[in-house]
Amino acid sequence: MTGELDPIIHPTNRLKICAMLATATTVEMSVVKDTLGLTASAFSKQVAALVDAGYVTQERSQIDSRRIWLTLTREGKRAYRDHVAALQAIVADSTRTT
């Protein structure tokens, strides 16, 4: 753990996307978008930031090209794990001082 929050993952919707992808092998893009309740444009921007960082990959369905599947990469899994550990450390520190 680096002990620092990841600025790519930290925004709430990106954190939620990573959390969903961390619990599954792949998730259909529309399922993630609908679960978050974001507009297509807002969701696209959040996914693009994760893809650009190398944390998420997108793959079109071979059967129906309108369906896109999202997967957390190995680097994305590590970054998510480290980010969650940093959040947990912040919470643990705050409960010790209270």
Name the poorly predicted regions: none
Reported by name, the CATH topology is: Arc Repressor Mutant, subunit A
What is the N-to-C order of secondary-structure elements (H for helix, E for strand)?
HEHHEEH
Helix percent reads 55-70%
Highest CATH level, the class: Mainly Alpha
CATH architecture: Orthogonal Bundle
State mean pLDDT (0 to 100 scale). 92
Percentage of β-strand residues: 5-15%
- Which structural class should the secondary elements be placed in? alpha+beta
Largest sheet: 3 strands, antiparallel
Principal-axes shape call: elongated
Number of beta-strand segments: 3
Report how far apart the termini are. 24 Å
Number of domains: 1
The radius of gyration computed from the alpha-carbon positions, rounded to a whole number of angstroms, is 15 Å
Write the CATH homologous superfamily. Winged helix-like DNA-binding domain superfamily/Winged helix DNA-binding domain
Major sheet strand order: 1-3-2
How many alpha or pi helices?
Answer: 4
Throw out a few tags for this protein.
single chain, Arc Repressor Mutant, subunit A, three-stranded antiparallel sheet, 57% helix, elongated
Write the layout of secondary structure elements.
Elements: H1 12-22, E1 27-28, H2 29-36, H3 40-52, E2 56-60, E3 68-72, H4 74-97
Antiparallel strand pairs: 1-3, 2-3
Outline:
The protein is of the alpha+beta class. The chain has four helices and three strands.
Describe, in plain words, how this protein is organized in 3D.
The structure is a single chain. With 98 residues, the chain is α+β, with helices and mostly antiparallel strands. The protein has a single domain (12-97), classed as Arc Repressor Mutant, subunit A (Orthogonal Bundle). 57% of the residues lie in helices and 12% in strands. The protein has helices at residues 12-22, 29-36, 40-52, 74-97, and strands at 27-28, 56-60, 68-72. Strands 1-3-2 form a three-stranded antiparallel sheet. The longest helix is centred in the C-terminal third of the chain and has 24 residues, at 74-97. It is elongated, with a radius of gyration of 15 Å.
